[in-house]
Amino acid sequence: MSDNFGPVYEVTHSVDREVVGDFDAWLAQHIEEMLELPGIVRASSYAADEDEQGRPRRVTLYYFDSDSDLDAYLAGPAAAMRQSSEDLFAGKFDVARRTLHETAVIDDTLTPAESCLNCGTALTGQYCGECGQRARSRLISIWELIQEAFGDLLELDSRLWRTLIPLAMRPGRLTRDYLEGRRARFMPPFRTYLVLSIVFFVVVFFDPREEFGIFFDPEEDVPEVTDEQGNIAEEIRGEVLQDLVDDGVLSADQAATMLPDGTAITGEESPQPDGEDNADEDDNGDINISINSGESTASGTCDDIETNDFPPWLSARLTPERMQAACERIVADEGKTYLGKLLDSVPAALIALLPIMALVLKMLYPLSKRYYVEHVLFIVHYHAFFFLILTLQTLFLRFASLLSLPDGVSALTTLAVSIYIMVYLFKAMRLVYDQGRLISFTKYLVLVVAYLVGLALVLAITGILAAFSI
């Protein structure tokens, strides 16, 4: 069972700060005058989040008995009521109006119809003032489901776009606005960082052929060998066999059987030393070459590991035996498993870098009276920008490759992005910390050096952990 209430006429004013006090006094009196009009049951007003220009907003809800009462108001006294605000505050506010309809579900076992179905707070409009949930409980269409899932992407005025645009184009502005209290219009900093980092690693490292290889034709994975490439391969093969004949490893007759007809091998047949069969003849008369150095490549490489130069606390943990075992596991599959582990650990390593760099900023600005978390916020926004710009650069390079654009275009773009990343950091420091160019540049150089050292240290630790976790 459902009850349909009368319409709600919503009026939203965005008011200049210098007149907001006078406007609030006028609005209270205006609501009393509106309640004296026929058809209006009640009214309520509350302060909403600031608009895009940082102006306070006041939202007023007028509850009418019926649609006909609202129509009568709009056709009659509405113009005079609006003129009263224009006479007092002309050019000092913007206004938006819309009509809403409340729909509530009544169930004796659930929350009362005039309360939020999620938290139980009394409703004064189509959204709960406590938790923000919509009063209507039914999903009407597939389009509403899509809007629920991708609302921030589909709405040009959403927090997503209001965050990404200044993040990419206005160095330090997002951090400064957040520190000055303008926050509701933007995505939370850590959410922005996590979303952009995930998108970056997906774009850069995700290979659909590797992850979804079953959907691709296997024949497409085998590259075609051209005649020119085949001829080059035969030439290299002939040179290798000729070297083996010259060194006495093979005889000229044995080498000739391993090459296409018409390829000449010069040299004399030389006997093989006793006990060393480097070239054996199989049952079909073919020659199989087997070169054995007496120890595997992995063993030869990993035996050279030394820990004498390590500090005592480190050498006690990284013993030669443990390092040799880790080395052999890495070399066993040519480092593929290790590389996968390392790439999986890089996001966590970059998160670990955030508090380190914030500590550097705290030491660089000891007199700024900023809390440590404010420096963390600056680094989080800069890393988010870093992921965003590199994602865009990667997408551009792939697009340029598809269009077969000249290599100079890609190289020039890469150079421009590299310069922009460095300039962005300097301009962001200038805006957020508000110091002169010379002192800002000095601190900028110190921060860059500290960043490179910290990044190298964090990646080294990550590499060691990845090696011992295989």
Topology:
Blueprint: E1 2-15, H1 20-35, E2 40-48, E3 57-64, H2 67-75, H3 78-89, E4 93-105, H4 142-154, H5 159-169, H6 173-179, H7 189-205, H8 208-211, H9 227-246, H10 252-256, E5 279-281, E6 287-289, H11 297-302, H12 312-315, H13 320-332, H14 336-364, H15 372-402, H16 407-433, H17 437-467
Antiparallel strand pairs: 1-3, 1-4, 2-3, 5-6
Describe, in plain words, how this protein is organized in 3D.
Residues 104-113, 269-281 and 289-298 have low confidence and may be disordered. By secondary structure, this protein is of the alpha+beta class. It has a four-stranded antiparallel beta sheet with strand order 2-3-1-4. A two-stranded antiparallel sheet has the order 5-6. It starts with a strand and ends with a helix. The longest helix has 31 residues, at 372-402. Among the domains are: 2-138, 2-Layer Sandwich (Alpha-Beta Plaits), CATH 3.30.70; 250-290, no CATH class; 321-467, no CATH class. It is elongated. Helix content is 54%, strand content 11%. A hairpin with an 8-residue loop joins strand 2 and strand 3 (57-64).
Structure, briefly:
The protein has 470 residues and is an alpha+beta fold. Helix content is 54%, strand content 11%.
Strands, total number? 6
Shape: elongated
Measure the end-to-end span.
61 Å
Instruction: Look at the helices and sheets and give the structural class.
Output: alpha+beta
